[in-house]
Amino acid sequence: MSVSEVKKSAESRMNKSLESLKTNLAKIRTGRAHAGILDHVQVEYYGSPVPVGQVANVNVLDARTLNVQPYEKNMVGPIERAIRDSDLGLNPMSMGETIRVPMPPLTEERRRDLTKVVRSEGEEAKVAVRNVRRDCNDALKKLVKDKEISEDDERRTQDDVQKLTDRHVADVDKLVSQKEAEIMTV
Q1: Contact in structure between 56 and 79 (CB atoms under 8 Å)
Q2: How far, in Å, CA of 71 to CA of 53, rounded?
Q3: Would you put residue 39 in left (φ > 0), alpha (ψ -120 to 50) or beta?
Q4: Which of 67, 76, 80, 128 could form a cystine bridge with 17, CB 3.0-4.6 A?
Q5: What residue spans define the domains of the chain?
């Protein structure tokens, strides 16, 4: 592995961490209904946990209501239970073969709780970025030990990787602050 490959690998892995953060932040609700909010809710389906989206069709009825249409009639109860037991604070209502999920308006306390969740997601993303930096530095040390690069090249590359890390951490902070502002806006 060369120095440029180490850098490319680090950058792509850090970008993946950012994309993962964006995906996770999109799941955190801001008061408006969107179908992606139930993506991480797991329901028991023949003995194994699967996402709600694989056993039901999730649609947005209006700005404050989701409609969940299970593919099998016997899945209404388990899906309703899974949504109720999730950390989203939702109270689904069974309407025969469909489930309506009203989105309650966010209270000030719930908004603060959601910002804590957003911050913890951001912290996890920062840890992932720093882990990439550590792996990259380990790879560089191995290259020096195998005498494939000089110590000066190692130091220069470590500085570049640190700048890359700093940039990605700043991006994480920016995404977190944007999401917090979005949640706290009434």
Answers
A1: yes
A2: 10
A3: alpha
A4: 128
A5: 3-26+107-184, 33-102
Which strand (E) or helix (H) includes residue 82? helix 76-85
Rounded to an integer, what is the distance from CA 27 to the centroid of its chain? 7
Q: What pLDDT does 89 receive?
A: 77
Examine domains 3-26+107-184 and 33-102 and report if their fold is the same.
Answer: no
Helix (H) or strand (E) holding 31: none
- What is the Cα–Cα distance from 153 to 170, expressed in whole angstroms? 26
Residues 2-8 have a mean pLDDT of 88
Q: Which CATH number fits domain 33-102: 3.30.1360.40, 1.10.520.10, 3.30.230.10, 3.40.50.170?
A: 3.30.1360.40
| 94 or 37, higher pLDDT | 94
The pLDDT, as a whole number, for residue 34 is: 78
DSSP state of 105: P
Is 1.10.132.20 the CATH number for 3-26+107-184? yes
Please report how many Cα atoms fall inside a 13 Å half-sphere around the Cα of residue 70, on the Cβ side.
Answer: 21
pLDDT in tens, 120-145: 999 999 999 999 999 999 999 999 99
